[in-house]
Amino acid sequence: MLRLCLILALGTSFVRSMAALPAPLRTFIDQHCVDCHDADVKKGGLDLTALSFDPLDGARLKSWQHVFERVRDGEMPPKKKPQPAQPELESFLTALREPLLKADAADIAANGRVQSRRLTRTEYEHTLHDLLGIDIPLKSLLPEDRASHGFETVAEGQQLSHHQLARYLDVADQALSEAFNRALKGDKPFNIHCTPKELAKFTRGNYRGPDFRDGKSLSWPITLQFFGRMKVTEVPDDGWYRITLHDVQAVNPGPGGVVWGVLRSGVCYSNAPMLYHIGLVGATTTPRDMTFEAWIQKDHMLELRPQDATLKRAQTGANGGNVSFEGRDLARQGFAGIAHTGIDIQRIHPNAGPELLKKRLFGEGGMEGVTPENIGRLVTRFASKAFRRPVTNEQGAPYVTMAQKALGEGETPFEALRTAYRAILCSPRFLTFTEAPGALDDHAIASRLSYALWVSMPDYKLTTLANEGKLKDPVVLAEQVERMLTDPKAKRFIESFTDQWLKLNQIDFTNPDNRLYRGFDPIVQESMLLETRSYVTEMIQKDLSITHLVDSDFTFLNERLARHYGDDLKIEAGDGLQKVALPPASRRGGLVTQGAILKVTADGTSTSPVVRGVFINERILGNHIPPPPPGIPAIEPDIRGATSIRDQLAKHRNNESCASCHQTIDPPGFALENYDPVGVWRTGYGKDGKGAKVDPSGTTPEGDAFASLAAWQKIQSQRADGLARGFATQFLTYATGAPLRFSNESAVDQLVRQSKGNTRSLIREAVLSEAFLRK
């Protein structure tokens, strides 16, 4: 009963008597609840008899919804208490369900489920890139977005302060400066080839460059900071560059046939130690060119070196901060390295070349069409694109007037356009989503769909369909979902959604203790991210069953990640990340066993079944876990491994305030305890697994016992509907900007049935649902 108390206590005021309750509710509560929650006992501080039945009151509506859910799900009354007969239970739920549904639906009809929300900083960056044709990074210049209900897109957690508006204004200025400068002055070319001999030159400070031998540039596993820096690769301006390493080849590769390194950029001096990841370099015995595209800051250079933590490290060969290869041959000494025959660096503009950029800024007429006579038309055109819907003369008039005023004050037509564009980019119509309560109009549907699947503004096709009023047609809308998920821009969705849904954006929040986990390195971490994003992409593109969240017969690995996991699998050297079939007895099936998930649910030193259990319940299984009661201390794992975390939790669960929640939290956490903080299988705690033995057994809240991870996976794989509901709920929360409500549950159940539990189909049916198509 205490759990009910704790849930109801959140945000509920108790001011009316029990007399107003409908008879079935009053009888049920009197027989099964008030022993613990009357005015005298008040377990958890709740007098349930004072909770008036007033569904039209928002706080009380939410509280009664929680009551319904906990009773419906069998969590209340507690198992140790006398249980109501089935007819009595059904009578209570029926009496409670209908008024709650009506009240919730009425509130949504009047006010909408989704509050007015603004673009996140990621959405803002992609939108300016697509609108203007620029490619400069922008989101790092804006305040971070706070997540609510797990997502940055949720309006409830967003703010729009004067400070934020000022930052948006600054960023809009930078974006417009880049766009107009490129349009008016042209793009500055940059294209160089650096030979191995040139790469080995370094005229300032200590030498930490590559080894030059036999006409090749060689980099070795030397751990000195900034080793592998190449001064000649400094770039003259901030920008995107295409970097090609020629004839990359492994020197003395191990059994896997690959020497792994990392290509980064930076100042490469101690006064500016930050380095920026460009890509993984997997060198094999077969020479091959490798190409990367990356944003590089002005005067930053490239750094390339092996960073596989399992490689034998070479000495610097010199005193102080120098590196020297004089009088020694590291290849003959058996050290692994990466060789190549030179580097090409070319300035590129991945989002739009000069002509496309001019078209986006000035329309089909290009620069020749920018005349005083055309200013009004150009401003209105730009406003319509930026506001993601047609702009009336009245709506566009202030911006046209602004441009005309600038012309009257002696500014050129280009300067006048920029003045108006700046105001447009700071308008609420650009920064926020225009949605009225009720059914969304076609342009609101286009925007919601485009930001859900492309994290940016609608393209020409979507806009045209919206202008023609066709997006409310389910057939047309379903076709657009398929088109957009197939488009390369869907990669943005995969990255944005998985970053938030699976907390992949927190993978850097902890650094594993290298004394305990010596095999973990930047290559492993980057490979983990690639594994999970590739896996989710495969689930969506191939419309795979949602049960792949918990188990599967394949995953995506490269040689380094497979070696880190310790899995004896056939990996093709040099093929990078690849789809790998898993044997029946594999420990790697399903999203939940992947290293990225296991790392973000650990603290770098130890694991906690509670942390992992909450994550798996809320993000994968679709169960909501309420916050812990106040004053209950957290479990601190014994990092020495002498005491099992299960033993500590057993004492914790003796507390009545904790037991009811932990029967749901702990099972998936226990099932995953065989994985350490960096995703490696273990059978015992502590260093080298020599401490207390891991016990992965448990019992699900439904009463199904399991003795191992595999048994738990089998149980959950048979509950596809629950997994599908959980995924659909996560997607709709992300895509619409608000959590689902009580009255949305039947719609979610319907779309789960229609999708047959397949991932891509779930997304399509979610988009076609009322929850997506209404504010």
From TrEMBL:
Keywords: Signal. Pfam families: PSCyt1, PSCyt3, PSD2, PSD3, PSD4, PSD5. Residues 1-19 form the signal peptide. Residues 378-435 form the DUF1595 domain. Residues 588-683 form the DUF1588 domain. Residues 440-566 form the DUF1592 domain. Residues 703-772 form the DUF1585 domain. Residues 33-79 form the Cytochrome C Planctomycete-type domain. Residues 117-180 form the DUF1587 domain. InterPro entries: Cyt_c_Planctomycete-type, DUF1585, DUF1587, DUF1588, DUF1592, DUF1595. This is Cytochrome c. It comes from Brevifollis gellanilyticus. The lineage of its organism: Bacteria, Pseudomonadati, Verrucomicrobiota, Verrucomicrobiia, Verrucomicrobiales.
